[in-house]
Amino acid sequence: MTPPPSRRRRGTTGSAAPTRNLPRRGAVRRAQAITTYGVGSLVAVDQESFIVAGIDSAAEQWPLDEAPVIREPRLARVLGVRHFRLPPASGDDSRDGIRVRRFPLWHHCPGCHALDHVAKFNSPPGRNECGECRESLVPSRFVVACEDGHISDFPYRDWLHRRRRGEGVSFSCDGRMSLRSSGHTSSLRSVVLSCSCGVPEVSMEGSFRAGALRELNIGCRGERPWLKDAPRLSCSLTPRTLQRGSSAVWQPVLRSALSIPPWSDTRVHALDRHWDKLRGCTGLAEVEIHLKYIFDGAPSPVSPQQVLDLIAAMDAEDPSGEDSPDRDQEQRYRALRDLEYRRLCAGNPEDSGRHTEEFVCEPPIGDEKPLTGLGLVTPMLVKKLREVRALTSFTRVVDPETSSESHEAALSLAPTDWLPAMEVHGEGVFLRFDEELVDAWAELPAVAARAARIRERHQRVLADRASDPTRIPLSPATPRMALLHTFAHVMINEWSLDSGYPAASLRERIYAGDDMAGVLIYTATSDSAGSLGGLVAQGEIDRLDRAVRSAVHRAEWCSADPLCIESEVSGAGGTNLAACHACVMLPETSCEHNNGLLDRALIVGTPEDPSIGFLSHLLAP
């Protein structure tokens, strides 16, 4: 990553614009630039702190010549872009990298305890240290952010002079502020602010309360420091105080898709720029003429019949030539999941003569009778898959799972025709439940009642976060959804003990709908370690039978029982029942729903009513 140029000694208080060929300050993996240190996030490098810059092409924030193009036509159409780009590499062989800006701008000196804007410390050129005592400056531990994604420096001067603000007295203080720790405790009470104007000292205690800044009439400044030359926006929200390193400061909004036929054949990528013309072809002869023109007479890697099949698939998914305007992005995204589910059910057998296929899915060999008592139908071994994960926006303060689009912060000032993304190559196992058995189980009154409790709490959270009361999304927390989600977590924990992959390297993909009841568990690594074969081997009939039975027995007891199994509410926003970190919760990288909509009792039952567990019969002595 590349920092902004060094400040002048007594320059302006704003951050300078980044330029090319600047010294590198740190390095992150390309995958981290999507999931952990994406646009708008804060990254610590040595004793300095920066915010990752946006992707505006006009501002040349990303060196596009070092950001390879990623193709995934279905996901691109859903998100309204032409393609995706891998973040620039930050290795020694890279000329450039991801640009960053200094943030927060308020620093303090651990030597003289001065607290001020970084530009007022009179630092030597190219160095971030106090001009008086030569101590390295420490970026502010605290920032303020609102639910719309705006972020600013903590208002230290207003907080210190809050008594005058509370009395409605206008004041103007240019005194020198100091920040020190009393050392008595490690709490905020020991972080003390003072000013040379003589105002009484004030600690940081209470600054994290939800209404702390509202009581001082301190509103959001509408600042977007990750975007170059971004004007301040009018914002009526009250900001919250956050620790600079808190996960609430930045949470990515990701959209992903599997590469499935016919687009999973890498040979079709050669036609990416020509579909506008090819889509108008009506016969083999016309397609053949276009292919000769495209490849300048050389042999085409794709046959004319394959091109017609691709056009037919494109028309079936998008009859009008572009996604219908009456369907919002979420509906199109759900339709994308439907296509994936059907392809996972149908499979795509391995062809030894083709090495260009990125999706290989076929059933295991063997007698499926052992699976009958598990409620499962034929599993599918996904021996080869490719997933593209795109960073569409991000949120602050609020969870992306419960936020609305109006609370999502943009990656650029102006719309772009591409988005940052990463691709994952790996393997997986697709498990599908018998829908008739699931439907019969879901109709049990006790099961419906538990699912209703989760759905009501989740719906309440969605309503609280919605900016438009007339467009509150419906909670997906049905009995089927909660069962599939919890089952996926239980199996990931079980397979992490046998497959050779830790739980953090496995990921779930839930397919829950009126005509879907499946989970895909696959490797979530972005390197060659994602295809070692250990996970696919767990999908063989005999191993799968043992693994499911073992996982259910393991989920029967939790070290937090009986509190866990008897819990009336748990999890963020109260969207879980019997679920905690000691039993079914997973690392954040593994779960699609941020460890929400979980209930272990729907699998193993409760001591009072074992029948509500879909697989509780496996626990019978």
Notes on the protein architecture:
The protein is of the alpha+beta class and 621 residues long. It is built from 14 helices and 20 strands. It has helices at residues 32-35, 73-79, 156-160, 162-166, 275-278, 284-294, 304-317, 329-346, 435-442, 445-465, 479-498, 534-537, 541-556, 601-604; strands spanning 42-45, 48-52, 69-70, 83-85, 100-102, 106-108, 114-117, 138-139, 142-145, 151-153, 177-181, 191-195, 202-203, 240-243, 251-258, 360-362, 380-395, 418-432, 506-513, 516-523. A hairpin with a 6-residue loop joins strand 12 (191-195) and strand 13. Helix 2 (73-79) runs antiparallel to helix 8 (329-346). Residues 5-21 have low confidence and may be disordered.
Instruction: Determine the structural class based on helices, strands and strand pairing.
Output: alpha+beta
Low-confidence stretches: 5-21
Q: Helix amount, in percent?
A: 10-25%
Q: Enumerate how many helices there are, as a single number.
A: 14
Q: Any descriptors?
A:
alpha+beta, 20 strands, 6-stranded antiparallel sheet, 14 helices, 621 residues
Summarize this entry quickly.
This protein has 621 residues and is an alpha+beta fold.
Topology:
Elements: H1 32-35, E1 42-45, E2 48-52, E3 69-70, H2 73-79, E4 83-85, E5 100-102, E6 106-108, E7 114-117, E8 138-139, E9 142-145, E10 151-153, H3 156-160, H4 162-166, E11 177-181, E12 191-195, E13 202-203, E14 240-243, E15 251-258, H5 275-278, H6 284-294, H7 304-317, H8 329-346, E16 360-362, E17 380-395, E18 418-432, H9 435-442, H10 445-465, H11 479-498, E19 506-513, E20 516-523, H12 534-537, H13 541-556, H14 601-604
Parallel strand pairs: 4-18
Antiparallel strand pairs: 1-2, 2-5, 3-4, 6-7, 6-8, 7-11, 9-10, 9-14, 11-12, 12-13, 15-17, 16-17, 17-18, 18-20, 19-20
Helix pairs in contact: 2-8, 6-7, 11-13
